[in-house]
Amino acid sequence: MSGYVGVIVSDPWLQSQFTQVELRGLKSKFLSARNQSGQLTVEDLLPVMVKLKDLGKILTEVEIRAILGESYSNMNDELDFESFLRVYLNLQARATAKLGGTRHSSSFLKATTTTLLHTISESERASYVAHINNYLGEDPFLKKYLPLDPATNDLFDLAKDGVLLCKLINVAVPGTIDERAINTKQILNPWERNENHTLCLNSAKAIGCTVVNIGTQDLVEGRHHLVVGLISQIIKIQLLADLNLKKTPELVELVDDSKEVEELIGLAPEKLLLKWMNFHLKKAGYEKPVTNFSSDLKDGEAYAYLLNALAPEHCNTSTLDTKDPNERAKMIIEHAEKLDCKQYVTPKDIVEGSTNLNLAFVAQIFHHRNGLSADSSKMSFAEMMTDDAQTSREERCFRLWINSHGMVHIAIICLRMSEMGSVHWKQASKPPIKMPFRKVENCNQIIRIGKQLKFSLVNVAGNDFVQGNKKLILAFLWQLMRFSMIQLLKNLRSHSQGKEITDAVILNWANNKVREQAGLLKWKALRTRTFSNGIFFLELLSAVEPRVVNWNLITKGESDEDKKLNATYIISVARKLGCSLFLLPEDIMEVNQKMILTLTASIMYWSLQQPGSELELESILNEENKTPDASPELDGEGETALAAEESNLTIDAAASDSALSPHVGSGEPASQDEKEELTPGDKKEEPTPGDKKEEPTPGG
């Protein structure tokens, strides 16, 4: 839910000495080194600096203590974060001097961590530049800057304003970003540039990229390894987009029976691509299984067999007769050119075993000629196993939310549970786990932790998770995601004052923000379906940041097409503001209660971090905490009975049944007469004919 504001240092010069990756790492070390009273003294600092391998290997503990003594006569002096950074830079300079470097080279450690450990493959850069030139060459805004020259820094210079990366995300997963929300002026000010990068990073997370070590400032600075790493992930997602049974049902040919089809559905795209490759290689008589996109492909034999099997009219056995891997690689590229599959690799990339480029090459071959036929019996079974649309969207949301945290953040969550006495690590088995009962033990501990966190897990056992009960797993993940949202809000202690934050508090906060902006006096209940036009959330976004919504772009939301335009714009604007979201436009259009709550909580979290928001929650918390909070009930069959105050999202509005702002398209906020309100706790209305009746889902 957090945005990518980054670690801010008041001294601009000091800020310029570090990348955001380095600042976040140093901030973490600073916080972890503080004593029980929350302070860090010079004495506390000594062991931290000694343990830093890039300093500890060069300076002894005695030398570090002597250097600290030059600046601080009293080892009990307290240090703030900026003082910590200055000490760090001083030690870097001393270490550089000891190695014979120049005194002014204060970026000694930066060079070690950023340049030496993050080398950039020139082949990858050239390949990605070719991809960008190919797919974005006709873009109305970017075409004046393209084609890029891979031999120069054109790629990194163009990426600095954020437009290129946003456009590339939309190429990978069309419709992810509403391009109306991208700032595309000829010259962008720092605020607009930061907005583009915030939109880019939050959208990248929403399509499956891992961006936990990238901040907006890193992209503004054009940090080469981070920009190339992000582009690599985006292109990979694009190339693997069709590696699933929904888009390529012919993949069922890779398996023999219905049980294997079920396993096929659960395979990651990379694994599925390897399975497809081995399927054709086995048929062609190639006996060695390919298990990776690097060492197993270096000799080129697998490529030769694959291309001969898929395109015999363009290939011949002479590729296998040559003994020189370099010569064989050249012949493979020549054969691939006839299939229009040359773009991503060179003979050198094949021989050297470039993982990313080999994966891209194999994926490209798959797209142009997968060599599969349709088995109607297997395809019908695969179709029977397809989930309903809403379940699939929720599963996608939870998966992306988990992936977005990265291993470091998941570890932090576990540590928090450990501090509460929840996790018994000695009883936990770590992967790979071969014995089934060990999996059950782990899942039983998960259930126990969930109950300690007051999750509703009636008649749910660890074995249900081991057996892959999708309803119960999704129910648990929703409660975990909701718990994470609430914890983030509670951690803003100056706002919550230690009081309980419930779903009702979140929704009432949203209502109050919109009401305060409009000064509405008279409200009346309307059916939830009127909420689907998105006007309420546009008003909420405008309330927390007036400049972020361009009302000239808003539709009336009368047709499904107009509603989708509004919903897509809402998501993009919220991400641009700094909200981390994983919902889809359809979730807003269908008023998916879980996803609506995550959207509202994300906007609330961003708003409460802004200056002057300290008193926003006080009145709501005082009112809400007068009544006890109820928790959702989840039984072993996956049925749900949420308390009204936590689940019923109904809308209040003025007399207009359309709940539409008359200023839509005028560039002005909505009037005081026609506003929607989101109110928890109202009695749930019975669905009317034509309304979609939502089946009860676990945790929803």
TrEMBL record:
Please list the residue ranges annotated as the Calponin-homology (CH) domain.
122-239, 267-370, 372-485, 500-608
Recall the GO molecular function terms of this protein's record. actin filament binding; metal ion binding
One Pfam family of this chain: CH
Which InterPro entries would you find in this protein's record?
A: CH_dom, CH_dom_sf, EF-hand-dom_pair, Fimbrin/Plastin
Q: Which UniProt keywords apply?
A: Actin-binding, Calcium, Metal-binding, Repeat
SUPFAM superfamilies from the xrefs? Calponin-homology domain, CH-domain, EF-hand
Q: Where is this region: Disordered?
A: 625-700
Which portions of the chain have biased composition (kind: Basic and acidic residues)? 677-700
Q: Name one GO biological process term.
A: actin filament bundle assembly
- Gene3D superfamilies tied to this protein: Calponin-like domain, EF-hand
The annotated subunit structure for this chain is:
Interacts with F-actin.
Do you know which PANTHER family this protein is assigned to? FIMBRIN-5, FIMBRIN/PLASTIN
In Swiss-Prot or TrEMBL terms, this protein is called Fimbrin-5
